[in-house]
Amino acid sequence: LPVGQLVTVYFYTEIPTPPKPTTVTVEDASSEDGYIEGSTATVTWPAYNSCPAGFNFSGYNFSVSNGSTQGNPIGAGTTSLDITLGSPGETRITYYAVCGDLQSEVSDPAVISVVAEPAPEPTNTGNGNSNSNNNDNSGND
Fold it and tell me: Rounded to an integer, what distance in angstroms lies between the CA atom of residue 92 and that of residue 57?
């Protein structure tokens, strides 16, 4: 090489895994005892903006145990999702961001307590008379 000639050198390094997104928040988590089985809970999260340079953010993939959702992938502009809760116990929700052909680390789980639907209250269809023995002794002289 002649002295002073520019030389282009390429080097490659492993692209780091994008960081995990924030744990989802359960909207209207007002029930101290939990959500009723089969009901719907809405979860929200802040928009993800941690994709490495050159890797376009394209959305999210969710994992829901003991529940279900509309399916994956979830679009990049989305920041809320309805979860249909399963049987009594716990519903766990995790997700990761998709950055081009990379995926972020998985979020910490959000846990929703799921309880059985309460038994219906008994209805009173009687006439208010608590004596069920209606012996009519008239005419038995």
Answer: 24
Over residues 92-102, the pLDDT tens digits come to 999 999 999 99
Whether 69 and 116 have beta carbons less than 8 Å apart is answered as no
Query: Which tokens hold the place of 127?
Result: 């006439």
- pTM listed for this prediction: 0.75
113 DSSP β-pair partners = 90
* Residue 141 pLDDT level (bands cut at 50, 70, 90): low
Measured CA to CA, the distance from residue 27 to residue 80 in angstroms comes to 9
Task: List Cβ neighbours of 40 (8 Å cut-off, separation of 6 or more).
Answer: 82, 83, 84, 85
Beta carbons of 85 and 38 less than 8 angstroms apart: yes
Q: Which two tokens stand for residue 91?
A: 């519903």
pLDDT for 51-79, tens place per residue? 999 999 999 999 999 999 988 999 999 99
Detail the DSSP E strand segments found in 1-141. Answer: 25-26, 35-36, 40-44, 57-65, 67-68, 74-75, 80-85, 89-99, 102-103, 110-115
Determine how many CB atoms are found less than 10 A away from the CB of residue 36: 14
